[in-house]
Design brief:
By secondary structure, the chain is an all-alpha fold. It is built from eight helices and no strands. The radius of gyration is 17 Å and the shape is globular. The chain has one domain (about 5-220): Growth Hormone, Chain: A (Up-down Bundle), CATH 1.20.1250.
Amino acid sequence: MTESDRPSQPLVVSLAALTVVSGIVDAVSYLGLGHVFTANMTGNVVLVGFGIAGAPGFSVTASLCALGCFVGGAMAGGRIAQRVPRHRSLMLAVMTVEASLTATAAVLAATQAVIGSGWPRYTLIALLAFGMGTRNSAVRWLGVRDMTTTVLTTTLTGFASESTLAGGRNPNAALRATSVLCMFGGALVGALLVQHLQPAWALGIAAALVVTTGAYFFREVPLELGTA
C-alpha cells in the first residue's frame, strides 16, 4: 500500500471504534438474545445449519431474522450510497441510522423484563441487524482493506499468510492488528456488561460510541480527503 493509498488516521480511528461496537452488539445478541449474531453474518449461516440439524440451543428462526434484516439494511445502505456520492456524507448518514436503531434497542431492552424470547427478542434482533447491514454497506463503499468492522476471517488470513514467518513483509499489519484487538475488546466489554449489569447498558454504550464516532468523523475527516 502506497502512502497515497493509506487511509487517513481519523478514518482508521472511526472504523476501529465501529469495530468495537460490533463486538459489543454481538455479545448482547449472542449472550442475551439466544445464540444469534447481529453483526457477524457468517456465524448466522453456520447457526442456521446447527438449528436445522436439531442441535439444542439454536434457533433457525432467530438466525434467519438476523440474516434477513441485515440484508435489508445492506440494501438500504446501497440505496443511500447511490444518493449520497460523497463517502464522508455516506458514513455520517449510516452512523446516524445505526445510532438511532441501537439507541432504540437500548430503550427496549431497558423496559422489558425478558428480552431473550417473544417479540422483544425478534425486535431487538431486527433493529441491531438492520443497523449493522446499513453500516456494512457503507464501509464496503469506502474500500478500506482489512477494516470491514464486522468480520475478521480475511483479516486474520492476511495477517498470517503475509507475515514475516510466512515469508511476507507484514503489509497492513497495524490495521489488521487494530481490527482484531478492537473486536476482542468490544466483545469482552459487551460480555461483562451483559453478565454483570444488563444488556441495555451494553446497547446504550454502543449507541453512545456510534454517536461519538460520528461527531469525531464529522469534525476530523475533511472534505478534500478521499473519504469526502
